[in-house]
Description:
Elements: H1 15-18, H2 21-37, H3 41-58, H4 62-65, H5 67-71, H6 73-86, H7 103-128, H8 132-143, H9 153-183, H10 193-224, H11 243-261
Amino acid sequence: MNQLPTGMYQPGTSLVHRMKANIKIFCFLILTVAVICTETLRGYAVLFLFTGILIYLSKVNFGTALGSIGRLTWFFILILLMNICFYGPDDAWIRIGIFAPSYEGLMQGTHIVARVILMLVICNVLTVTTAPLMLTEGMEALLFPLKLFRVPTEQVAMILSVAMQFIPTLFEEAEMIKKAQIARGARFDSKKLLDKAGAILPLVVPIFLAAFKRADELSLAMEARGYRTDMARQRRKFGMPAGFEWLALATCSILCILQIVFL
Length: 263
């Protein structure tokens, strides 16, 4: 392949790479709240500008950060069309059976698509700049207070980390299967919707089978290496945040407050 799959960890020395995993995850959660609370064009403009600066500071290739967006183009179009046609029928432009396109639906669909794009890009930056083991330990550190309520934080952190790391692997598997199907005559570039649907359906079963196979192999590998969830393990001590980490937390918090109160 010419480039690494989207979301796969890439070592680096940028400020974002050097941030502690728990601080990065906490900043990600703050930004998630900011994205969800955004309702105005100015708010989205500020968030997209901030995301661009974040990509620049992380020294991640823009193609890598935006890689998953292109693969979901048809999903975004579908979400947009569904909202346009079915959301806010009281103020519809025109009515054709069950379809009632409206301005409210257009704005609602645009909000959803913009939020999903922002979340995908920020999540890509997080996973690309954080090693899988550090990501797991960072999640476990943030979830540690839940131990007071007997929540198995180690297992939860491991599940979340493995799920996030499986995403680029599944994208790679899907690309390989797609190329194999093209070699067998599948027409993914056809302009006819039925042809596209007919070509995509044969991808679904192999991808699911590959995912289950990899999950089974991973469980066997962990069992062979003696991984047990009921044993006490030594945890990494992240320590107090450094100066630039405090600055990152403050910046994300201020941005979130601005989105909620002013923008």
